[in-house]
Write a structure and sequence with these properties.
Blueprint (H helix, E strand, L loop, with lengths): L6 H4 L3 H7 L5 H16 L6 H7 L5 H77 L8 H31 L8 E3 L1 H18 L3 E6 L6 E3 L1 H17 L6 E8 L4 E8 L23 H4 L6 H11 L5 E5 L3 E9 L1 H4 L1
Parallel strand pairs: 2-4
Antiparallel strand pairs: 1-3, 4-5, 5-7, 6-7
Helix pairs in contact: 3-4, 5-6, 6-10, 7-8, 8-10
Bound molecules: adenosine-5'-triphosphate (ATP) and magnesium ion.
Adenosine-5'-triphosphate binds next to helix 8 and helix 10.
Length: 339
């Protein structure tokens, strides 16, 4: 491969160029360089061209001509270099596009796989739950205390499995960009009340206080009631889960302006290190690697909460201090503006 012509290579080579094009000999060049050095040693400025003229080796016109030739060469070299760079950029862009295409294909396959598997899991779960129900209500015969106890545990486990399957289905829909919202005017106070009722026993079991802070007449918001309730429930569930006994969780619904209501879940729990605040919203990310055993869960909750909040045109924010607690919040537009 020839050395590419770059400005650095070309510019300082006037002498070489003059020799190569037969305008002067090597000896002439050496003479001129020696003359130039002598002048410079005397403290005078002397360019190579001037030295050649002083020594009557070349005329001004001949030197100008040689310099012009070099400028043209330089321009051509720059154009070549530019073309080379453009080609490289095009090649790299094509490579990256191909990599991106493969990645989205893989992502799509993953989402399809998760969707198919979770749908397949749902059907047998319906049978499991149905028969458990029949057993617990003694429809299939009387039960002794021990059997009742065992059935209760099995029912709770089935409930957990079912909610995991539902989360996976929701996750695969979101990953395929197929999560749709059924928007309607909803009463946030009612949603909050339901979440409180649902979470109360869990909070009590863990000896964590659970409080609702809301004004009586919260303006209505446009939202998908099922998904929004689910998202708030996840936040409250996390808050209870990551707050040690004796701590407190507060769900607050506060109108901020005429058109905005903020939903916030605050806890006095273990908190989240600042550097990891982004990570917790990634699917399957849990801060403590052993938390699967210690706290339970799959790490899908917050990823889905973010999808749901974003689908409502809002943004979820988190503030947290390690060892002190966390607040997750997001604003919603009241119906007043969306009407
Ligand atoms: N209120 C909180 N306080 C401290 N850490 C939290 C809190 N909420 C979430 N986290 C951290 O973020 C991680 C991800 O939360 P996420 O809700 O997505 O998953 P999970 O609760 O572990 O499992 P899942 O919600 O699927 O049952 C948690 O495992 C935990 O490490
Ligand atoms: Mg969770």
């Amino acid at each position: 491969m020839t050395t590419p012509l770059t400005p650095e290579v070309l510019v300082p080579r006037l002498g070489e160029h003059l020799v190569q094009t037969g305008r002067i000999t090597e000896t002439d060049l050496k003479k001129a360089l020696a003359y130039q050095k002598k002048k410079q040693d005397e403290g005078k400025r002397c360019l190579l061209g001037e030295a050649l003229m002083d020594l009557d080796l070349l005329t001004r016109q001949e030197i100008d001509h040689a310099v012009t030739e070099q400028i043209i060469q330089l321009r051509n070299a720059l154009e070549d270099a530019n073309r080379f760079l453009e080609r490289r950029v095009q090649e790299r862009t094509a490579e990256l596009q191909e990599a991106l295409r493969k990645l989205s294909e893989l992502n799509q396959m993953k989402a399809n796989f998760v969707a198919n598997v979770s749908h397949e899991l749902r059907t047998p779960m319906t049978h499991v739950k149905g028969y458990l129900e029949l057993l617990t209500t003694s429809s299939l015969g009387p039960l002794n205390e021990e059997q009742k106890n065992a059935l209760q545990i099995t029912q709770r486990a089935a409930g957990r499995l079912e909610s995991l399957i539902d989360n996976l289905i929701l996750f695969s829909l979101a990953a395929r960009g197929e999560m749709t919202l059924k928007l309607e005017s909803i009463d946030l106070g009612k949603v909050a009340g339901n979440v409180m009722n649902y979470s109360q026993s869990k909070a009590q079991d863990r000896n964590v206080g659970l409080e609702l802070k809301a004004i009586p007449d919260i303006p209505q918001v446009q939202a998908d009631v099922e998904k929004l309730s689910w998202a708030i429930l996840q936040l409250v569930d996390n808050a209870i889960k990551f707050t040690p006994a004796g701590g407190k969780v507060t769900l607050s619904i506060q109108p901020e302006t005429d058109t905005l209501v903020t939903v916030a879940v605050t806890d006095t729990g273990i908190g989240i290190p600042e550097a990891r605040l982004d990570e917790i919203f990634e699917p399957f990310h849990q801060l403590d690697a052993s938390s699967t055993r210690h706290y339970g869960g799959t790490g899908l909750g917050l990823a889905l909460v973010r999808e749901i909040v974003t689908a409502h045109g809002s943004i979820i924010e988190v503030h947290s201090e390690e060892g002190k607690g966390s607040t997750f919040s997001f604003p919603l537009l009241t119906k007043a503006l969306t009407d």
